[in-house]
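pasting for ref
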Amino acid sequence: MSQLEGAGTPENLALPLKVYWQPGCSSCLKTKEFLLEHGVPFESVNVLEDEAGFEELQALGVRLVPIAARGPVWANGAVFRDVAKVAGFEYGGHTMLTPEEIKDKVLMILDAAGRYLAQIPDDKLDVVLPGRPRSYRQLVYHVFDIPKVFLDRVEHDTPYTYEALKSILPDDMVTRDDLLAYGRGNRDRFAQWWDRDGATMDFTQPGKVYYGEVSLHEVLERTGWHSGQHTRQIILMLREKLGIEPDAPLADADLAGLPLPKNVWDNERSFGEDSYTDAAETWDSAKTG
């Protein structure tokens, strides 16, 4: 959620605007690009490398990113309406694809991620990405997991939490085949949910998610662009880190209509950097969440 009491007052607008983020985070990148597109200056705080900045984030009562803040007033970057309130300008929103169109994109993305996973050599699955402690294996898992968290919300009213979206695999998901099966299972479950409930579901209902007051339609849209953005990163990883041409790579036209960031990795950090660490994050070592 967000803490918006005092947003837009002269006293609060006089305080510096800060964006707390980490590399490779799709919502973080969208938040930064959103403010830049609207000509709003801000201080960029990479919480993985700025310990004082991370302590500021914790002082707000949160350990997640992205957060846009002016002093004690802050917004989760996943809700642009709230970010605009903190930044001090009006935001009119954007036109969304229909739920059925988004459903088709999600299924396409899950199919693509499965193809790309099959191309990653076994000895490269646990190589860590640049800028953050996330492995190639975890990146693919994250793509598969995003629709699963949405399905848990709409089918079982399971709480939609930041922790549920962490890209840390269960202990019993060991092999590539385990991960491929997980992706196929979520893909089939998503298609079955739509065939059963999609035509009659009220997508104007509250989304009931951790990041703010949004409609279920907006949650579905985020499921599409969030998984799509990370699939773009898998394509980038195959090409630039492994020298492998992706099997039927998704193009911009395939993802048209989803509000993707302009950049694939980040607007400040290069994907050409070395692995951030030797090992990926675990529940014990994770800094955010």
